[in-house]
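User: Fold this; tokens only.

Assistant: Input:
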Amino acid sequence: MKKRKKKISDEALRKLVYLIPARYFYDGIVTSEKARGYQDYIEFQCQTYRATKKRQDWYEVKRLTKEYEEYLQKEVDIKRKLLLFGLLTRDSKERIDVYNLLVKKYHLERWV
């Protein structure tokens, strides 16, 4: 008897894409000019705070860090959506193959 592979639903693909840790999408983002600007400015503000110990400088560090994290989150979300779109446009056999590859690559066996 021929073993039949199950069909991968759109919802299963969506779940898989959102289970992949954000750090795997950072490639190209954290080295971008905008991200480097944030990183440099945060470092500068940290040095300023260490020198002055002023509460205002600490709040600026926290504000910049939050803004940087929101920027990263937005960029990762865009990459997730692009990956999902790419997966949804594939045929059934390719979906199964890519699904299994991603599960194995990101060690998501426990969660899918």
